[in-house]
Amino acid sequence: MRLLTHTNIDFLSKRKRYYLLSLIVAIIGLAALFYNGIPLGIDFQGGTEMQVRFSNPVEVDELRDAMDKSGFSGMEIKSMGSEADYLLRTPLQGEGQTVAEKIQTGITENLKGKSFEVLRTDKVGPKIGKELRTNAIYAIVFSLLGILIYLALRFQLVYAIAAVVAVFHDVIITVSLVALFNLIFPSLQLEFNQTMLAAFLTLIGFSTNDTVVIFDRIRENIKLFKNENIVSVMNKSVNATLSRTFITSGTVLLTVLVLLFFGGEVLRGFAFTFTIGIITGTYSTIFIASAIAVDWQNKVVSKKK
Amino acid sequence: MKKNLFRIILTVVFIAAALMYIYPTYQDYQINKELAGLTGQDSLDYVTKNADRIKSARDGRLKLGLDLKGGMYVVMDVDIVKLLEDVSKKKDDPTLKQVLDELRAIPETSDEPILDAFKQKLNARGLTLKSFYGEVRDSESDIEKKLSSEIDNSIDRAVEIVRNRIDQYGVAEPQIQKIGGKRIIVELPGINNPGEVRKLLQGTALLQFQLLKDPETAVKVMQNINNILVGKQITDSNKTVSGNDSLKKNESLVSKDTTKKETAGKNEIKKDTTKKDVTKKESNKKDTSKKLDTSTIAGDTSNMSDTSSANLSEEEFKVKFPFFFLVRLNEESGTADGFVREQDKEKVDLILKREDVKAVIPSDVIFAWSQKSFEAGGENIFTLYCLKKDAELTGSVIEDARSNIDPQSNQPIVSMSMSSEGSADWARITGANINKRCAIVLDNVVYSAPVIRSKITGGNSQIEGMGSVQEAKLLEIVLKAGALPAPLKIAEERSIGPSLGEDSIRKGLLSSLVSLALVALFMIVYYRNGGAIADIALLINVLFVVGIMASFKATLTLPGIAGLILSLGMAVDTNVLIFERIREESESGKPFRTCVELGYRKAFSAILDSHVTSIITGIVLYQFGTGPIQGFALTLLFGLGANLFTGLVITHFLFDAYVEKGKVVNIG
């Protein structure tokens, strides 16, 4: 069985088009980001979160009423799939976990007779929230830096830069698309917490993988086809690796989709982000990465002249 | 085959090692299944019979994260403002209170060190640290240094207090970690009552000095307990009845093992004359070998049928003296310190909690455990002390404690000084109780029970007899803990109920199996027999990752399972790269054997580079993530690492197996 072998598509000559596409998507997405944003989870914002499961279905309004009466007006209440599972969230932290206790008594008092089970509670103080935020930024910066250095050693600097720019592009597009989806489908309830951060970081690594494979082929082909023009060599390389790119992205996508559908709420944010990320990553690998390499090189070359 | 022999051997060795590391987890699973089917006495019997098996399985099994097992995760920081409040000499001064309130209002997220802000605010009001802290002769910078080191040391005290309490509370496999000198992370698996634990972790420590009950009374109380257990009558613990020495014979059964440590446990407390007093130092006497009157140990034997001096066997001893079977006394020591094996500790606790037993324990008596155990005869032994319930002094009288090496004896000692009111009380207490023992008790756990050598005036005491410098240091921390609190603030708390944990395990397992199946299927469909070879390598990959995790005693979390699944997807990439190359090469008409070699060789650089970049992000994630995220990074890293072996080496020699025989592997 063969897929996408022996193709001869010209990816590079129309690269300006693809830049434009990326730009448009990015703009729409960033607009969505600023308008609605991806809400920060309590990991980064601080606050208290409690997941409860009632033995019998409870109406959202009843619950909201009960919370208002207990002094938690404006508390975020999300349904976790069924009419009996709810997620309650408030930015208040309180000392110890008295907030959680207050919520519990609030429910018992105001929703008399409705027994419930507390599945989990999380409380993150402001200090920790800030530290996690700082760590998140360091994590992204260091991984990009690490990759840049490693690739600069293995390939020429031009390619290393192109790869990192492509990855950066992936992150931005993925963030934009996630924000967009969050806007259009609020029921997805995506939020930016540590698990989603893990998705982005893994994406960075994975997207680089893809790009590296193509660059590796380009490096090989440059030696083989010494007399050909660089654009043509690049095109050849992308075409040669096309099959592999799709199959690998495909299998990873498959595993992530399994996670998305079977992995439960905790991993949903991760799985969704990663799904979008793989698609974006594949796109950038094929249409953007080599393009950047070419254009950067030309700019550098023309500067020298 | 020869060039592959080494690789094959290596593979077999790795697989065997992986299986060996995974075995305890399987064992543990089996044991739990069997236990689930038993109840009550049967299950108790099963546990006792298989104690060793259970222990080794539990030690070696794969650790599950809190998100899979349920439990609590708490991060605590030292509440510096409260510490400043508690340590000050004028706690009720309104200006101080004002300043402290202002400090509390500073958002937690600001990076300004609190001590600096404190100084600033005081100075702005024309006050100095000296106004509220330190001795008269201390300079401002001295005080600042002292306060600063107090803050740093408070975390050690806090860790000890927390550890103590969690031990008492009884959690299986708790984890307490000190991070970066200012923070404690506590993980408590299986906790269902976060409210209780919260109170436990945040309450102030209680340090008390409690005298030990005199040995005669203590033994009588124990005999009464014993009689309850055996179902016999109780004696009035004030009467002494003469009896025979059947017990004496059996006591000596144990004393051999315990005399060795008995002397080490004998701490002494005496007046610290090194600093203040000019008078001669007390001689370092060892405790008297005052033997207990054997008649009093034997107690009321009128109800015991066997009054002959025949040597009782272990079994008979257990039946007749169930309490003493668990709590062994050493008659030669002249004390009523009971020695209990670690595994019996819980049983003794249960006995002491019984209503009928509680009824025979006099109202002025309380039993307390030693904080640590010592080793004797290959077992860990805890000491059970019989104390006077009312404390003579509380830890608030202690002004300072310091561990040292006595220059004359070269032994570790702890010197402590008390406040003036404390000193007066202490002089009275020590004067009235010479040669008696006084226990130093923190949160109802005995850290030390030294003998009072002399009347101690002036409040400076010296405790000797610790077995090591660490012991002395620990005692210093404990003494300070009672005097100087280490108030903790909970910065982060997560508690997960067991049902969510089970839920997550199920979902994790389901996802893993489904992805594995789908990927394996795809490989066969697309790459035919080559795909089958790749699938074998994939399965071995999973085995390796689980084995590595078990060998490192790493914790598996739900994101960790996601990481494993992801690494499977990426592992496929290795094979795809190789197979695509082989296909390409075979198109140019080369013999299959050559294609395989070329495929592996040419694909190698791409495989290496792509793995390294993913490994870099994995390492970064591990470094900057916490808990579950680190679990994800770990399985990802292990998966990628293992893949470099399974994808490259194992598939290669599997291919060679065919290729060397001149056969061709159908890769579609």
Structural commentary:
The complex is a heterodimer of chains A (305) and B (668). With 305 residues, chain A is an alpha+beta fold. Chain A folds into 2 domains: 15-41 and 129-304, Multidrug efflux transporter AcrB transmembrane domain (Multidrug efflux transporter AcrB transmembrane fold), CATH 1.20.1640.10; 47-124, Alpha-Beta Plaits, CATH 3.30.70. Helix content of chain A is 69%, strand content 9%. Chain A is built from 9 helices and 4 strands. Chain A has helices at residues 15-35, 42-45, 60-69, 98-110, 126-154, 157-184, 194-224, 230-262, 265-304; strands at residues 47-54, 76-79, 85-90, 116-124. In chain A, a hairpin with a 5-residue loop joins strand 2 (76-79) and strand 3 (85-90). Chain A starts with 14 loop residues before the first helix and ends with a helix. The relative contact order of chain A is 0.14. Chain B folds into 4 domains: 1-61, no CATH class; 71-203 and 488-494, Alpha-Beta Plaits (2-Layer Sandwich), CATH 3.30.70.3400; 207-465, no CATH class; 498-668, Multidrug efflux transporter AcrB transmembrane fold. In chain B, strand 9 and strand 10 form a beta hairpin. Chain B is globular, with a radius of gyration of 33 Å. Helix content of chain B is 56%, strand content 15%. Residues 235-265 and 273-310 of chain B have low confidence and may be disordered. In chain B, strands 5, 7, 8, 9, 10, 11, 14 and 15 form an 8-stranded mixed β-sheet that branches. Chain B has a 5-stranded mixed β-sheet with strand order 12-13-17-6-16. Chain B has 668 residues and is α+β, with helices and mostly antiparallel strands. Strand 4 of chain A pairs antiparallel with strand 18 (488-496) of chain B.
